[in-house]
Amino acid sequence: MTAAKKKILSWADFPPDFPKFFLDPTGCQLSVKEIGRNTYALVSNILNVDNAGFVVGEKGVLVIDSHISVPMARQIQQRIREVTDKPLLYLANSNYHADHTFGNCAFPEETLVVQHRETADRVPLFQEEWDFILPCTGGDPKIWADVTLRPADIVFEDHLVIDLGGTAVELHFFGAANTPGDTITYVPHAKAAWTGNMTGGGTCGIALESDAPTFMETLARFVHALDIETLVPAHSPLSGPETLWSGINYYAQVTGAVNKALGAGWSLEETLERSPLGKEFAFSPTDDRVKLHQARHRYNVRRTYLSLTGKV
């Protein structure tokens, strides 16, 4: 299947009252946090605005995600240069969305962009992704001045090991979750993994382009395959493996609720009304965050109902 035949997310796929994702990088500063030998998270000072990271080997550096704009991609490279002057050999994208890939074009030509096949098929749909991401940054197109399409140089299917010289980095695809091509970047010696949008710091995530049973099964494969101590999600603080188990529990509950609804013959509206977000997943320091979690939960229930009835 060619890229032209692929479909990516649009705001037509969401209920009208769904809150826009906050991805505006204005004022974002990335700080370097060492999470293992030669293994570094780049942590955003603005909640929801992307984290990133990099791993250093004897031969050079692998970068995880390029952020949403040219200035943010340059800031990533500045933070790396505070640690090492080794060449930037690889850039791994966690998924196809603009906040993970629009900065690709600001990296050196010799840096090889690595993407899962499903991500590589969608990144060329550049204008469609631009249209989707624009409302998430307050409608300001100046954020993307100088952004151009930079597609993959290396495409993998399920598993890829990259030798940086004395340091191995593994890229894993365990199945669709938030997007069709969610990629886990794993550093075995540090027991650290970058999860993109697959985990969300202990709160309920969002099955943007899958459904609850699919997301649950993907997380289960993740848990059983890798030995994890530190997770670096794209939009939340760093966390531990308990986040994965929380996600499995959450998506199992959504799956059960929707199956119960279908068995009882409930409509979509009845299912949404009778399947509230569990209190154990609704915790948050602010009322606004609780409302956001509730909106995401309703999306997950809706998406799963439509998926299991063959309507999406």
Would you summarize the structure shown here?
The protein is of the alpha/beta class. The protein is built from 8 helices and 12 strands. Helix 5 (212-225) links the parallel strand 11 and strand 12.
Helicity range? 25-40%
The major sheet is characterized as:
7 strands, mixed
Query: How is the quaternary structure best described?
Result: single chain
User: Based on CA inertia axes, which overall geometry fits?
Assistant: globular
Tell me the radius of gyration: 19 Å
Mean pLDDT: 93
Number of helices: 8
Instruction: Give the helix/strand class.
Output: alpha/beta
Strand content: 15-25%
Structural write-up:
The protein has 312 residues and is of the alpha/beta class. The chain contains eight helices and twelve strands. The strands form two sheets. A seven-stranded mixed sheet has the order 1-2-3-4-5-6-7. A five-stranded mixed sheet has the order 8-9-10-11-12, with no helix packed on it. α5 packs antiparallel against α6 and α6 (242-264) crosses α8 (287-308). The two termini are 19 Å apart. The mean pLDDT is 93.
